[in-house]
Amino acid sequence: MPPKAQIQSVSNSMVKHAYSLKSARKIREQEDFLCEGFHLVEEAQKSGLHFRFIFGTKEAWLTPEGQRIETIAHREKTKTFEAPSKIIAYMSDTVTPQGLVAVVQKREPAWPPDNSRLILALCQIQDAGNLGTLLRSAEAFGVQGVFLTEGSVDPYNPKVVRSSMGSLFRIPVMSGLTWEKVREWADEKKISMLGLTGKSEQSLLDIDRKKTALLWIGSEGDGLPAELLNSCAVRVRIPMQGQVESLNAGIAGSVAVFWYFTGGQGFDTPKGE
Fold first, then answer.
1. pLDDT at 183 over 60
2. In this predicted structure, what is the pLDDT of residue 18?
3. 273 pLDDT band (50/70/90 cuts)?
4. 194 φ, ψ to 5°?
5. CA–CA distance from 119 to each of 65, 147, 164, 245 (Å)?
6. Residues 11-22, buried b or exposed e (16+ Cβ, 10 A)?
7. The predicted structure's pLDDT at residue 270
8. For residue 66, which of 49, 83, 52, 50 has the smallest C-alpha distance?
9. Which CATH number do you get for residue 218?
10. Which of 75, 105, 135 delimits the end of a domain?
11. How does the average pLDDT of the chain come out, rounded?
């Protein structure tokens, strides 16, 4: 590999751009997002995302992971740079950086495919960890698309990117919509809307899992708005024991999605077969 250019100052325009992507406003305005750590950078490369540039410490580039990333970057003509750990830490959004930070172009927003069986609709999910969990579970269990309403955390928030573990790079996501716009889309496609709420008498276990559906998950504190719930064809709750009143959005959505696809029995075919 040819020697990498050295970055020695936080005043460098690329470093300043990377640093700005930790700001919620800049994340919303820019076409790029911050991707850091060996696993996420490799996942972004495997998913075919377009990289602006990658920064790494000398030590990071010498690791087996760093060398794999550099090989792909060279093939894809992605600019790579060597930077001291203090500059990596300046750009990083984590407490203990791994020594590798990339600036990557966001995917184009994508509507769910027409052959979808289940679409996940998330209303004002504000916790980044919960959103990342939901995206990861959505991909793991077979959801074909995700809607995210306005008032939710940005899907390219660095914590969402990390907690999704790469699922954000692969599953179709549409964000910043009103729930009414999502309902219009569902009506046009003749897809039934299900609302998950602890106030329903009907159990999640009793739904017809053979029908295509759009499943709504509400915010951590307020749940789903009453008007949205009233527009859902079916409102269901997750049956629970003990004195637990509710589950957080990430767990509730994951349980509901797993049940919808498997009936709680697991998948017939092992992964990879």
1. yes
2. 97
3. very low
4. -110, 135
5. 34, 8, 17, 26
6. eeebbebbbbbe
7. 52
8. 83
9. 3.40.1280.10
10. 105
11. 92
